[in-house]
Amino acid sequence: MSIVKILPKSADTAAALHDARQEHLSGWTRGGLDLSDRFPSEIRSVAARTEILTEGDFSDGMVIVRRGWMMQYRILEDGRRQVLQFGLPGDVIGYRADPAAPLSFSVEAVTECEFAFVPFSIARRILRQGGRDAQRLFEALSLSLDSAFDALTDAGRRNALEAVAHFIWRTSRRIESGSDEETVAEFDFPLNQEQIGDLLGLTAVHVCRTLCKLKSLGVVSLCRGKLRVEDPAALAEIAGICETHPDEWSIAG
Question: Which pTM was predicted?
Answer without folding.
Answer: 0.79
